Amino acid sequence: MDTVVDVPFRLLNRKAHINSIESYRAMHTRSIKDPEKFWGEVASEFYWNISWKRVLSYNFNVRNGPIFIKWFEGGKTNICYNALDRHIQEGKGERVAFYFEGNEPNTFTSYTYRLLLQKVCKFSNALLKIGVKKGDRVIIYMPMIIELIIAVLGCARIGAVHSVVFGGFSSEALAIRIVDAGAECIITADGILRGPKQIPLIPIVQKAIGICKDNNLVVSKVILKNWVGFKAEDEKFISWDNLVDTCKSECSVEWLDSEDPLFLLYTSGSTGTPKGVLHSIAGYMVYASLTHRYAFDYHEGDVFWCTADIGWITGHTYTIYGPLLNGATSILFEGIPTYPDGGRFWSICEKYAVTQFYTAPTAIRSLMGLDSHFLEKHDLSSLRVLGTVGESINSEAWLWYYKAVGKQKCAVVDTYWQTETGGLMVSPLPGAAPAKPGSCALPFFGVQVQVLNPDGTPAAAGQEGCIVFDRPWPGIMRTIFKDHNRFEKSYFSVFPGHYTAGDSGFFDEDGYLWVVGRIDDVMSVSGHRIGASEVENAIALNKDIAEVAAVGIDHEVKGQSIWVFCVLRPQGTLNEGEIILYSVPNLKLKLAMVELTNDLKLKVRQQVGAFATPERIVVVESLPKTRSGKIMRRLLRDIFSRVKKQKLGDCSTVSEPQVIKNLVKQAMTLQL
Ligand code: WTA
Question: What letters, b where the CB count within 10 A reaches 16 and e where it falls short, cover 299-335?
Answer without folding.
Answer: beebbbbbbbbbbbbbbbbbbbbbbbbbbbbbbbbbb
